[in-house]
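Work Package 4 report. The design task specified in the project plan requires that, given a folded chain encoded as structure tokens, an amino acid be chosen for each position. We show below one input record used in the internal validation round.
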């Protein structure tokens, strides 16, 4: 490996992403492949503070304020966490990254997609993942899987989540080299096998 490998995971709340990322991490650990798992929002010290606001602030937040809070989290995370790990030739597994902002603040919140893509470029200094896996699932099924108290974004209705899903599918269509879609309405083991097939192409 000349530099590290950057893999990101995307999908609607309730798509089973967390379970799959943990299984992938276990696979890499068992195969002695040095890796670090991180996430957005909240993959840096500053990001942890921003995460509290983003998920639990209970007064109105303007769409633009929300967008820039996610971008601030990403700027800090990219510079102080992701880039140094890639320089150390690690495999970096990141739970959500640039595509979440395009899908949530762009497609679902009806923000300006092209501007958001440019802002993502600005805050990441154009750092793109080598591979992005989108866990695709019917919005009703995803919603019914959510347990416990819902955060600010999870409280959004079905229409929001349907637009979000379409957003991810569109992103995948526009970036076929980088973004791969996996049907997340399947047995955990089947989904895991598909993820490993995709990842193997990068780590071997
Ligand atoms: P989190 O608890 O990490 O959810 P999940 O386990 O589903 O990843 O909460 C992150 C929430 O923030 C999630 O609802 C998606 C949302 N989000 C955005 O709206 N825009 C973004 O750029 C990012 C990174 C996340």
């Amino acid at each position: 490996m000349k530099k590290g490998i950057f893999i990101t995971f995307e999908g609607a709340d309730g798509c089973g992403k967390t379970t799959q990322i943990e299984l992938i991490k276990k696979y890499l650990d068992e195969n002695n492949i040095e890796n670090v798992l991180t996430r957005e929002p909240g993959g840096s010290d500053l990001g942890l503070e921003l995460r509290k606001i983003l998920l639990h602030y209970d007064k109105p937040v303007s769409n633009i304020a929300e967008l820039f809070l996610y971008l601030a989290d990403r700027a800090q995370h990219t510079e102080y966490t992701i880039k140094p790990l890639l320089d150390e030739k690690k495999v970096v597994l990141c739970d959500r990254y640039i595509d979440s902002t395009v899908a949530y603040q762009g497609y679902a919140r009806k923000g300006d997609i092209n501007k958001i893509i440019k802002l993502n470029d600005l805050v990441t200094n154009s750092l793109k993942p080598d591979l992005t896996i989108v866990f695709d699932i019917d919005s009703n099924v995803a919603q019914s899987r959510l347990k416990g108290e819902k955060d600010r974004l999870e409280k959004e209705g079905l229409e929001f989540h349907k637009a979000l899903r379409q957003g991810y599918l569109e992103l995948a269509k526009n970036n076929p080299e980088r973004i791969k879609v996996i049907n997340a309405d399947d047995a955990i083991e089947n989904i895991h096998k598909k993820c490993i097939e995709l990842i193997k192409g990068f780590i071997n």
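The pocket of thymidine-5'-diphosphate is lined by residues 13, 18, 39-41, 55, 70, 95-96, 100-101, 104-105, 151, 153-154 (CB under 6 Å). Validation will be extended to a larger panel in the next phase.
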